[in-house]
Amino acid sequence: MPDAVQLIGEEKDFSSNVIDYFKDILNSKPDRNDVDINMNYHIVSVFGSQSSGKSTLLNILFNTNFDTMDANVKRQQTTKGIWLAHTNELNTSSDSLTKTNDIFVLDVEGSDGAERGEDQDFERKAALFALAVSEVLIVNLWENQIGLYQGNNLALLKTVFEVNLSLFGKSFDPLKNNKVLLLFVIRDHVGVTPLSSLSESLTTELENIWATLNKPSNCKDLSLYDFFDLKYVGLAHKILQNEKFIDDIKSLGDSFAFNISNMDPMKTRGIDRTTDENKIIEPIFKSNYHRQNLPMESWSIYAENCWNLIENNKDLDLPTQQILVAKFKTQEFVNEALQLLLDEFDKVITDDILINKSMLIEKLLLLKNKTLNYYIDHASHYTNSIFLEKKTVLINEIDKIFKPKIDFYLNHLIGILINQLKTSMKNYNSANNNNSPFVEKLNANIKDTNLAFEKDVKEFQKDQLIDEKTFDELLINFSKLIKDNEKSLREAHLNSIINRINKTLSIKFKDSSINLLSHPEIDVWDKVLNMFNITLTRILVNYKVETTREFNEKDGFEYNNEKYSEAVEDEYDFHLGFNKEKNSNIYKQIRGNAWKTLDNIIHDYLKEDSILSILKDKFETKFRYDENDTPKFWKNEIEIDQAYKVARDYSIGLLDILSIAKTKDNVEIIPDVQLPKDDDEDAEDDDIYQDEFGIYHSQKFSHILNELQKENILKKFRKQINLSVLDCKRSTVRSTTH
Ligand code: GDP
Ligand code: MG
Predict the structure, then answer these.
(1) Which atom of ligand 1 is nearest to the CA of 235?
(2) Most-buried pick from 248, 436, 547, 609 (CB within 10 A)?
(3) CA of 182 to the centre of ligand 1 (A)
(4) How does strand 572-573 pair with strand 98-109?
(5) C-alpha 134 to ligand 1 mean position (Å)
């Protein structure tokens, strides 16, 4: 039996020993988290004048160890204040002590009636405190105090009624039926006056006191019985009738032992004990007496908060106090739960399981549930809204601890998925005969990639390791990342198409244009243009580029030279999922490259020397051969001179054709798109000009020979054909003179 502990000291201070006192009680319990134990405890207070035998009664009834005044030693009055003792054993009419739920007994040691004037403050505060926490107030009285009506005898009860109104009057709710039991214990009841008449006169006195109280307006019509149940018990004289005295206490013990958690009528009958008068025992503890809904472990904090408010004359708002305690305690359990988690975290979540999804999820879930269960086991008895609120806090904290590990896995996953996507599209590029267009394959792959990511993230989300919001964010960010990759994959594929088109173009252009230009006719440039458009379109068609231009593989284009530039305005689709404008720009880029390639080929080929040899070749053919390619036989020099003049004029005519690129209708050929610039090309090139539509053109293309170059060629050409004709004349003279 532990000694009682002082709860409120003489100096009206809350004792710091109380917390340890409760800790010891809880630690002595095998399962301190058992709801029945933690929640089903009772608080009883005792009031009465000094030396009225309060502590003596409590010690016998509750098997406690409060200080009592020893009659023989004549000790001074026991220390003032409020004392607290814990019990779960009662003295009842059974032979041994009866086990009960935990009961905490508050022994209020006030001062003598005579001294009370100076210590009314303590009495009032003690009453307020006792009412705030107790289910039962035992009021201890000598029998001879009743009926005398000496004002101050029952002054204590006036105080109790007043503080009761200040505590519960404002928020009085008849539906809740919250009450306190006032248990009057009449001491030295020798039995001359029956208990019934004593209780009658006490009741009358109490009702009178109630009637004279100043009540707040909302309590004007409320009766004493709206707040209190009254019960009267008489105890025999301790010294004169000691055996009966003990028996009376034991039968009072029977009423206390009647457990409210055992309200089952069968059980009730089982522990029923009858008094001498064969009366059925009425239980002391009733559920509507319960003051607080706080687990036992936090009672001392609650009591201390209440006392401090009382001591500082602040409003004592009990529900708010309970919420404050709930907040404090649930936060404590959140911290403990998190500490447990952190202690285990690195041991369980090792590096080797970070890229093993199912293991990672399994271990994280295990830790999460363990952490949450710790919290739920400890905190669930506190105000539900606070319990839930702090549970969310805990979940957020757990998520924060988990996040880096989950992120690690997801980043690993993202790396793998992006790599897979790139690899599968790379394979597409090398397989030219692939049937589905690039963009279809790409879209299908992207869809698969997104699904694969979503599937994995969903596994985390399903087990609530990732919340809805994070889930959505992850998917959005991932699809952004995929979009970036998609863009670069398309660009890469486009570049490879453009490069391959350029290569093919340059081979085809070279063969065709040299072939055309080495036989320059009046319409040779029309033919070059035609070749340009047909070749370009044919290559695009080979690369499965769709165009609105009608194209017949066998005949080529019915190409209208005058309108060759319309090709630029046609629509093209590179099947890369680009819009019209982008497709058109790509086409213009390819067409610009084509122009540039053609330009290079033509200007490389049509140098002075090669033009000279073309002219000479054409001259020789015209001069020496007839229409049937048969060598001519001249009869005289006149014939030679005539043939020479025709061939010479014809050849010089070809020089004009070759020196500037014009259609047969005498229109200078200008590239219809901007040509890509060489790196070393001067930005302010004189040959670049802007047309009326603001488009830049290069005149370089058509200008093949300048006047000086033409002069040079003509000079050399004349020299050479003069030699040629001289040779011819010589041989003719030789043959005619023979
Ligand atoms: P408290 O100050 O109210 O706690 O009173 P105590 O329990 O310390 O008792 C004060 C004195 O009264 C002691 O000497 C007790 O022996 C005596 N006493 C206790 N109970 C009774 C009782 O029922 N009748 C009488 N006559 N004396 C009692
Ligand atoms: Mg005492």
Answers:
(1) 23
(2) 248
(3) 21
(4) unpaired
(5) 23
Residue 38's pLDDT band, with cuts at 50, 70 and 90, is confident
Most confident of 163-172, 367-376, 544-553, 662-671: 367-376
Nearest CA to ligand 1 atom 22: 238
> Distance (Å, rounded) from C-alpha 307 to C-alpha 302?
9
Q: What is the pLDDT of residue 431?
A: 47
Alpha carbons 527 and 664: distance in angstroms, whole number? 10
User: What is the rounded CA–CA span in Å between residue 234 and residue 523?
Assistant: 139
CA dist 35 and 32 (Å) reads 8
Ligand nearest to the CA of 249: 1
Ligand nearest to the CA of 238: 1
Mean pLDDT of 137-157: 78
Structure confidence at residue 555 (pLDDT): 47
pLDDT for residue 6 is more than 50 = yes
Q: Show the domains of the chain with their CATH numbers.
A: 5-316 (3.40.50.300), 325-466 (no CATH), 606-660+704-738 (no CATH)
Which residues face 187 on adjacent strands? 142
Ligand 1 atom at minimum distance from 67 CA: 8
Residue 136 binned pLDDT confidence (cut-offs 50, 70, 90): very high
Q: What confidence tens digit (pLDDT) does each residue in 455-493 have?
A: 999 999 998 898 899 999 999 999 999 999 998 998 888
- Phi (first) and psi of residue 671, to 5 degrees: -55, 135
Which 3 state secondary structure label does DSSP give 136?
A: strand
Spacing, Cα 49 to ligand 2 middle (Å): 9
- Ligand 1 site: residues with CB under 6 angstroms? 48, 50-56, 68-69, 71, 187-188, 235, 237-239
Contact 674, 596 (CB under 8 A): no
Contact, 113 vs 272, CB < 8 A?
no
Which protein residue's CA is at the shortest distance from atom 2 of ligand 1?
Answer: 51
Minimal CA–CA distance to 704: which of 656, 664, 652, 653?
656
ipTM for the complex shown: 0.99
Nearest CA to ligand 1 atom 10: 51
Burial of 325 (0-12, 13-18, 19+ CB in 10 A): buried
Distance between Cα 59 and ligand 1 center (Å): 11
